[in-house]
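Action item from last week, closing it out:
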Amino acid sequence: MVEEQVILVNEHDEPIGLMNKLEAHEKAVLHRAFSVFVLNKQNEIMLQQRAHQKYHSPLLWTNTCCSHQRNGETNVEAGTRRLFEEMGFTTELKELFHFIYKAPFDNGLTEHELDHVMIGYYDDEPIINKEEVESWKWMCIEDVRTDMRLNPDLYTVWFKIIFDEFYHYLEDHKL
């Protein structure tokens, strides 16, 4: 099986090469990524719990889906593809903003990503892929913020960073 590659970028999101995903996380090299937040009519976020067999952050809660763009794929195409692969549905996605973050894991890997954050709206239940997702739930945005402060160990490292950026974006833009 061919290992998935990530798109290496500079701080201006200009592609500078490709690298195997695991190697990029071992070397903490800046690469392009995306995070999707799906909200319902009650303004709740669909959270996913990562599958128990994931090689990092198993059983931790995170945003609806996130991953890496493939070479030649737009951010929205990548988000749409991965949302369907993990959560079993599609919805229109809109790119909100991007930012750079660096987050080390306990296992020696590091996420160093230029993350494109997208939003979509959906009101039905997902059909989760059990290879990727253990469980899911809807959660009020304020409840996520409070629970993350009270129980930070239940959430992925990157979600805590990305959620904070997303929350402030929502405050500033009144979506």
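Closing note: The longest strand covers residues 93-104.
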